[in-house]
Design brief:
Helix content: under 10%
CATH topology of the largest domain: Jelly Rolls
Structural class: mainly beta
InterPro entries: ConA-like_dom_sf (IPR013320)
Shape: elongated
Keywords: Lectin
Number of domains: 2
Strand content: 35-45%
Number of strands: 20
CATH architecture of the largest domain: Sandwich
GO molecular function: carbohydrate binding
Largest sheet: 8 strands, antiparallel
Pfam families: Laminin_G_3
Distance between the termini: 56 Å
Organism: Micromonospora pisi
Length: 254
Amino acid sequence: MYAFTVAPTREAEPGASRLEARLINDAWRATASATVALPIPPPCDVPNPAHPLVAWDPSSGNTIADRSPNGRTATVQTGAEYVNAGPTGSALALNGTRYLRTTPTTLGYLNTATFAAEVKVTTTGSYRRLFDFQPGGNPGTDGVLIDLTPSNQLRFIGAGNGVTSTATLPTNRFIDLVVTMADDGAITVYVDGQVAGTAKVPDGGIIGCATRELRFAADQDGGQRLTGELDRVAIFPTALPADQIVGWQTRAFG
């Protein structure tokens, strides 16, 4: 009995490969071959798809509890102020200095993902962060970010590339914003339950293996701050299908 163990390297391409084994003796030889699949293992842990990665409902105080099982509590940088607005009637005022930040955490490997927020944007003319889990200047190979261009187009940087979507977000009113990334890299942007634009990144998934702060409304250096108002926020380790975009809040908060 002969046993062979074959494992892919990090450089291996996924798919089928032909393997051949040969046994040779002075008097005989035997050859056998088989086609086997060599899947590439994920670079770090894959989150449980049954739970959100994070779920925040800022309504009072400087500390925002994470309603997911992951304990990613957020702190309001520079102190919180709330307004009677938004779908829940209480929203965090983003005055250009405030933003949400966690202690250093890791998101894991995300082959698919959904980013959702009830948000009001009140300015244009500069780049402004929404979700941020990426060092400044990274091309999308380490973490992920979602921001707005000066003309309010939604931009996605992650899964190995940065792309500007065809979606332009409205200003000066609350919107129900949902951004999904499918396993083929297709980005779909929904505003108030309707498709507002699309984009495409490679299909390698988001490498969220590093440990850093997860932020909303500012980058990792505290810049590119968003001005407006924020109600509920969540990230899911799955791409919500179109018929589950409306009502993501129930999935996140129960």
